[in-house]
Specification:
The chain is α/β, with parallel strands linked by helices and 325 residues long. 42% of the residues lie in helices and 20% in strands. It contains ten helices and 15 strands. The chain has a seven-stranded mixed β-sheet with strand order 1-2-3-4-5-6-7. A six-stranded mixed β-sheet has the order 8-9-10-11-14-15, with no helix packed on it. Helix 7 runs antiparallel to helix 8. The protein starts with 9 loop residues before the first strand and ends with a helix. The mean pLDDT is 95.
């Protein structure tokens, strides 16, 4: 693997660094983090195979060596968080992977993940988005959730079960720095939508495991930790945690209300997806007008399109499954 390209990480706080993975060739869209303590390093999130050279180069450019990497941690196994795990573990023969028990088997044998992606995007687009996803030897995979900790130098990183976005989701709590690595469990908040009056932050309600009741419980669990900062995979460090919590609850209520409303009106399948996506665009625009006095620009809409589309599909899947039980 060529890791010679220049990549400089951003220092978030003492011994915690953010690397922009340039996912989908977009800046400040998806992050990977690494923590160093006592000469040992843990990476949190791998993004896709295409991000791995940049992640490793960022560590080297910070003055560290690759053999110092002790753990690679995944918050969950969605491919914008975990698609590059097999490749990075191949490059780090002495490191171990930390993952939620519900996701471990898919990291060891990723065939079902691959087939699922191919069924949606096709073979060519799968390769364009993710490259060749490879499995990880079982001996290198550690399944943790429910409060177990690993050690990096003198600091402990605790894995805590965090359902709502996905059933295979952990958050990572670093008590030493007061930091929570939240994955998708405390919303999405891109830097370009952080304004003087407040931020545009919203839940990730993508298919197929969105569960609003558990999402709300997870938000409370995270805020009850009283962290100094939350490190979003999408994207960066946030400290206005109470404000974001309130906004996430409002989004969940709105999403659940409109999902039930559109389903009760008789909309199903693609039509339900479209209706809910349109409802979510209305919410995005209302929030932006409140914060800036202006509607979303075409460029901003393009940046948010993937999230709006997936969130609409996730809400539609949830309400359909909930009413067919």
């Amino acid at each position: 693997m060529n890791i010679s390209e220049d990549h400089i990480p951003e220092k978030v706080t003492e011994n915690i660094y953010l690397t922009d993975t340039l996912y989908l060739e977009r800046e400040k869209f998806a992050a990977s983090y690494f923590i160093e303590d006592g000469g040992e390093i843990a990476i949190v999130e791998t993004n896709t195979n295409y991000a791995i050279p940049g992640i490793l180069n960022a560590i080297l450019n910070s003055g560290f060596k690759l053999p110092q990497i002790k753990y690679v941690i995944l918050t969950h196994i969605h491919l914008d968080h975990a698609g590059g795990a097999g490749l990075i573990m191949k490059e780090l023969p002495d490191a171990e992977l930390i993952v939620h028990p519900r996701g471990a088997r898919h990291m060891i044998s990723p065939e079902k993940l691959i087939e699922s992606v191919k069924s949606v995007y096709g073979e060519e687009e799968y390769k364009n988005l993710y490259g060749d996803i490879i499995g990880i030897p079982e001996r290198k995979v550690i399944s943790l959730t429910g409060g177990e900790s690993i050690s990096i130098g003198k600091r402990k990183l605790t894995m805590i079960d965090a359902p709502g976005h996905a059933k295979h989701h952990n958050i990572v709590y670093d008590e030493f720095s007061g930091s929570v690595f939240s994955g998708d469990a405390f919303g999405i908040g891109y830097p370009r939508f952080r304004y003087g009056k407040g931020d545009l932050v919203f839940p990730s309600t993508s298919p197929v495991q969105f569960d609003p009741e558990n999402a709300v419980k997870t938000y409370k669990m995270i805020t009850d930790l009283n962290p100094e900062r939350i490190l979003l995979t999408h994207f960066g460090s946030v400290e206005n945690i109470g404000e974001i919590h309130t906004q996430l609850l409002d989004w969940i209520d709105y999403t659940a209300e409109y999902a039930l409303k559109r389903f009760s009106e008789g909309h199903r399948m693609d039509e339900l997806n479209k209706k809910l996506s349109k409802d979510l665009w209305k919410k995005f625009d209302e929030r932006t007008v409140m914060l800036t006095g202006e509607s979303l620009s075409d460029d901003e809409k393009d940046f948010l399109f993937l999230d709006a589309d997936l969130n609409g599909k996730g809400a539609a899947f949830y309400i359909t499954q909930n009413n067919l039980r």
